[in-house]
Each structure stands twice: as structure tokens, then as C-alpha cells.
Amino acid sequence: MNVIALSPIDLSVSALLILVLAGLSRRLRLGVERQLLFSAARSTIQLLLIGLVLKVLFDNAHFVWVALMAGVMITVAGREVMVRQKRRFLGWRGFGLGTLSMFVSSFTVTVMALVLVIGTTPWYAPQYAIPLLGMILGNTMNGISLGLDRLTQDAAQKRQILEARLALGQSWQRAISDSRREAIRVGLIPIINAMSAAGIVSLPGMMTGQILAGTPPVEAVKYQILVMFLIAGGTGFGTMVAVSLAARRLFDDRQRLRLDRLSLPGS
User: What would the pLDDT profile of 140-157 be if each residue is shown by its tens digit?
Assistant: First the structure.
């Protein structure tokens, strides 16, 4: 494949867009120039570091190193899910819900794709395993974050309704069923929108990257379809698992609503 290498000067030219945007933010008093510059610098450093890590990993394709990298990715994603919640679960469960859900969904879907669909040798070849897991994790993380946030916010806002349902003899499953269903629906909205717009409104990143790298467009499209289906599966299963576990955690063994297990908004 004929890959056009980018020089530091090329990247500096594109960075001018961020600087101009930050300048406009300051002039218009939007107040986001510092966050914009910090995010741009952080993403640059993180991407350069992960590029070096992946280079070493590709040169030393051992299962232990690939598993360690996957574990770090899932752990960081679990933390991101936790910090994005306005009212997250207190203690280790706030971290464990998202991490466990992503492990069950994203990791399982990635392994299935590597073994049954792509069929690489070895199946954990980092060239395929790490990018695929990363794409599925990123989207699953967003879906789980939205779903959990919607569930906990809904439970807090509808506290009196939920307690009234419990007082009338409904089980916790029945009382929270509407909120749980809505939370799962909200978690699935981003991937549904992405699939609906792909190819017409937007050209997904993976397909665009492959085409720029010289892959035939039809082959790039096939891989993109595969990835989008895997992302949809990972996001759907992960959101369902996370929301279901979170809904159970909102009630104790005596069928009482336990909002005290959630942090206060903004804390």
C-alpha cells in the first residue's frame, strides 16, 4: 500500500485550526479556549504514546502483552464510565458496573470477531485485536455512560412514583421497568444514528483511514460494515447488562429504593 507519510510540519499546519478556534473562543468570550488547547495537547501526547506502545506490541506479539494492553483499555474505559455520571454509585460498584459490562460485551464480541470472522493467526494478533477492541470499547463506553446516567437521574426524579409503586405491591422489577427500558433506548441511540448516517451523511473513520492508506474501497467498506455491526452488538449487550445490574443495585433485598447508594449531583 502507498502510504503518504505526514511530517511534523504537516501536523503543525492542521494544529493552526485549533489555535484559531481557541483565539475565536477567547474573543467571543466562550470560555472554552483552555479546555480546547488542553484537550488538543492531551490527545496529541496520548496518541503519540499509544503509537509507540503499539509499535513495540506489534514487534512482540505475545498473548500476555496483548491481554495486558486489553486489560488496561477496559480498566480506563470503566473509569471513564464512572466519572461521566452525574449521580454514580458509591464505592467500588460505581467503577465495577461499567467495567464488568464492557468486559462481558466488548471483550466477548471482539474475541468472537477475531476467532470466527477475521480468523487471524494467532487469533490475538495485536494488529487486529487492539484496534478492534478499541473501536468497540469506545462506542460501548458511550452507550453505557448514557444508559446509566439516564437510569440514575430518572430514579432520582421519579422517587415518589417508584416508592408509591412499591407501596402498592409492585416488585422492584416492575416499578423500575419503564426507566430501565428508556435508559437502554437512550444508550442505543448513538450507534443507531451512526449506522443510519453511515455512507450518506458521513464516512466512518475506519473506512476513511483504510482508503487513505491505499485499501480498495470495497474492502474498506466490508470492514466498516463488520465493525459497525460489532459495535452495535457490543453497545447493545453492554448497555443492557449495565442498566440491568444498576437497576438491581437501586433496590435492596427488602424491595426498598436505595438512592443513598448514589452520589449527590456534581460530587
Answer: 999 999 999 999 999 999
| C-alpha to C-alpha distance for 240 and 146, rounded to whole angstroms | 12
User: What per-residue confidence (pLDDT) applies to 3?
Assistant: 65
Q: What distance in Å separates the CA atoms of residue 259 and residue 222, rounded to the nearest whole number?
A: 46
Segments in the chain forming alpha helices (H): 8-27, 33-59, 63-83, 92-102, 108-112, 126-157, 159-167, 172-175, 177-197, 205-212, 217-249
How many other CB atoms are found less than 10 A from the CB of residue 242? 29
Instruction: Write down the residue that cell numbers 483565539 correspond to.
Output: 23
Angle, CA 71 vertex, CA 230 and CA 181 arms, to 5° = 45
Report helix, strand or coil for 169: coil
Q: Is the pTM of this model over 0.90?
A: no
Distance CA 136, CA 187 (A): 14
